[in-house]
Design goal:
The chain is α+β, with helices and mostly antiparallel strands. It has 24 helices and 19 strands.
């Protein structure tokens, strides 16, 4: 194999060096390693290849290629890997926390606790004190953010022993599982409060959104989307064409930008700024992260000029691609180097445009288009064409890209190409939109409430001595968790009232969008169609007459709750290996799901005006397979199956094309004005030492919030 020969020639990226999935030289090697895993004839050969690569290949490249192989090998459907933020916590948490986790030592932690107790004994000798061992860390409240909850509880950014339970939104389900309790009772657990990125020396108001742009679920979703539809996997071999990979990828980018825009509006920010390679980037960014080899990530100052890198050859290739794609869309057709003419006035040609924008191997003309996407990210990180040793940069890996405000500006320019293509397609007519005999009379929506909750993320992989050798075998008896605040929402529901003249199978779709811009001006439907985010779609059998349909937010098939943690997964597998536990086949949560808790933007305490859109349309079975007919969604995402979607309508229908308001409004549609209310979970703690247990974590806060207020 070429990859193994390259290893023998010592021409591969060395272990310990930064790996960038969007660095051309690194991606070429990662593809070779993936082939080594994917094309292994049987499991034994696969196992040997993985064991060899684990010892000899760059660590991040190994994880990248192994993840790809596990996702795409048909015989590995349902095989669980830990989430990427548990494998490499360095890509998701700040360097301060990573340093503290890597140097954590159990013996030293115990000694420090004993020393502090002795100091307190001396300090309080002769004084009456009801709770003398109560810690009272110095509280620094300048530039305080809502998610810095530990300051209001009198805690510091260091390790605390956990003797009750780990925090997660579905903890009540695990507390009822005797096997889970058996696993956790012998596990020593510590947690530490974790902050998001703050302004240290670069003032940037965008940091108010760091709780969202640095959310683990948000970044993990983007990472796995690009694993599922990796740019160097061809659509025929891996079945990705069955899933309309090009259209799906660019539409998902569009939906993520719509979601980000709504979060910006929650803070009074406006549209995502325009992007140009020749204009200053107003918003700098310091990720405050460290790579696992000890090198910090590079940062960008405010008002940075990208063209100052001086790599004009690469810059010309990038800008030349954008000019070319704008030109061929305006022209209406493209003639490839093989002489094939592609009509760009057909709706299905969005597949070609999506492939071009992702720069994947299915692009219609590899001579011109394949590497532009990779070059664009390399240029933002000041990486040359064939450079091997690269300085860590957020824009070079999918798991870190969405932390940087530059990501949203740059990808907005790609989505503008998507809408330029749609501009030339004819608007939907009333006859196309209408469903005769069906009238969507009314939709009731329950109150939409968001809040910040607390969760423990498993970062045990940072712990240097998590395994001990006991009685002839390795034992995992310690776990570290990052305790962090994150955005969530109370479960909500809506009730449809639909009148139908006959029994009929239909598809019902739901969208959410802003109502007003940052200045309080109503956004016209013609412009706002670009901001609608689809949150639900499902099949329903209408009966003749009146139909009342109840739908809960927990029913959204494309969203997921918190996944099983690394520590839990390991102990479940070990129990099953010893014959003490039957590992459930449906335990594997789909890796491709969008975090349920991020469906709604933060909103305002007084209620942020929004609008929802609902539409009933006839069901038309997909051309390849009906949804979920060829795979079990409880443990598989069905990548390449052609059975992931409800129907063959364009993604985003009916907002994909420009709107003629004289034709658009039909009886099977319904617009609903709603408001999103934000509840401040930390309000009881704003009064300094406002509760008796100051200096210790308040478990009543967590228990009350989950069992009384936000559990249906």
């Amino acid at each position: 194999m070429k990859f193994f020969e390259a290893h023998k020639m010592h021409s591969l990226l060395p272990k310990g060096e930064f790996f960038g999935a969007l660095v051309k030289s690194h991606a070429k090697q990662a593809r070779g390693l993936f082939n080594m895993f994917y094309y292994a004839k049987d499991f034994e050969i696969f196992r040997q290849n993985v064991a060899w690569a684990r010892m000899h290949v760059n660590e991040a490249m190994f994880v990248f290629a192994l993840t790809l192989a596990v996702i795409h090998r048909p015989d590995f459907q349902g095989l669980m890997l830990p989430s990427i933020h548990e494998i490499f916590p360095q890509f998701f948490f700040n360097s301060k926390f990573v340093y503290e986790a890597e140097k954590f030592d159990y013996e030293m932690w115990m000694k420090m606790n004993m020393y502090e107790k002795e100091y307190l004994d001396v300090y309080y000798k002769g004084h009456s004190q009801s709770n003398q061992y109560q810690t009272d860390d110095y509280v620094y409240l300048k530039d305080w953010k809502m998610w810095q909850w530990w300051k209001l509880m009198g805690l510091g950014e260091h390790w605390y022993g956990e003797h009750k339970f780990i925090l997660r939104e579905n903890i009540y389900e695990f507390n009822q599982d005797t096997k889970w309790q058996q696993i956790m009772k012998d596990l020593k657990i510590w947690w530490m409060p974790v902050d998001y990125t703050r302004d240290l020396d670069l003032y940037n108001p965008e940091s108010k959104l760091s709780y969202f742009t640095e959310d683990l679920g948000w970044n993990t979703y983007w990472y796995y989307l690009n694993m599922d539809y990796s740019f160097f996997l061809d659509g025929t071999t891996f079945g990705l064409k069955n899933d309309r990979r090009g259209e799906l990828w660019i539409y998902t980018v569009h939906q993520l930008l719509s979601r980000y825009y709504m979060e910006r509006l929650s803070h009074g920010y406006g549209k995502i700024p325009e992007f140009s390679w020749y204009q200053q980037i107003e918003m700098g960014y310091d990720p405050q992260m460290i790579y696992y080899n000890g090198i910090g990530y590079s940062y960008r100052k405010n008002y940075y000029e990208l063209e100052s890198y001086g790599n004009y050859e690469m810059l010309d290739k990038i800008t030349g691609f954008m000019k070319r794609i704008h030109n061929i869309i305006d022209l209406g057709y493209y003639k490839t180097t093989e002489g094939q003419t592609i009509d760009l006035r057909q709706p299905e040609s969005i597949e070609y445009i999506g492939n071009l924008l992702q720069g994947n191997v299915d692009s219609m003309d590899k001579m011109f288009y394949q590497f532009w996407y990779m070059f664009a990210h390399m240029y933002t990180a000041d990486v040359d064409f064939h450079q091997m040793e690269v300085y860590p940069n957020c824009m070079l890996n999918f798991e870190t890209q969405m932390r940087d405000p530059l990501f949203y500006m740059m990808y907005k320019s790609m989505v503008e190409v998507y809408f330029q293509f749609m501009h030339y397609l004819p608007k939907y007519t009333r006859e196309q939109l209408m469903m005769p005999g069906v009238n969507l009379k009314h939709v009731d929506v329950t109150e939409l409430i968001t809040y910040f909750d607390l969760v423990d993320f498993d970062v045990t992989n940072l712990l240097n001595d998590k395994m001990i050798f006991h009685e002839g075998k390795f034992v995992w008896d310690k776990s570290l968790y990052a305790r962090q605040m994150r955005l969530n929402h109370k479960p909500f529901s809506y009730t449809y009232t639909v009148e139908s003249q006959k029994a009929e199978k239909v598809v019902i779709r739901a969208f959410i969008a802003p109502k007003f811009d940052e200045f309080g001006r109503m956004i016209s439907l013609l412009e706002n169609r670009m901001n609608f985010m689809e949150i639900d779609e499902f099949i329903y059998d209408l009966k003749a007459g009146s139909n009342v349909i109840y739908r809960k937010s927990q029913d959204f098939y494309w969203t997921v709750k918190d996944r099983t943690t690394y520590s839990e997964l390991y102990h479940y597998v070990m129990l099953a290996f010893d014959g003490k536990y039957e590992f459930p086949l449906d335990m594997s949560e789909p890796h491709c799901g969008f975090p349920d808790r991020l469906v709604l933007p933060q909103g305002w305490s007084k209620g942020m005006p929004m609008q929802m859109f609902f539409m009933v349309m006839p069901y038309t079975a997909p051309a390849i397979h009906e949804q979920f007919s060829t795979f079990d969604y409880s443990y598989s995402c069905g990548i390449g199956s052609g059975a992931r979607f409800i129907d063959d309508l364009p993604f985003g229908y009916p907002f994909d094309r420009e709107i003629d308001e004289y034709e658009f409004f039909v009886p099977n549609m319904y617009f609903k004005d709603v408001a999103i209310y934000h509840v401040d979970t930390m309000e009881p703690y704003y009064k300094h030492k406002g509760y008796s247990n100051y200096g210790h974590f308040d478990y009543t806060f967590f228990h009350d919030y989950y069992t009384k207020q936000f559990k249906l």
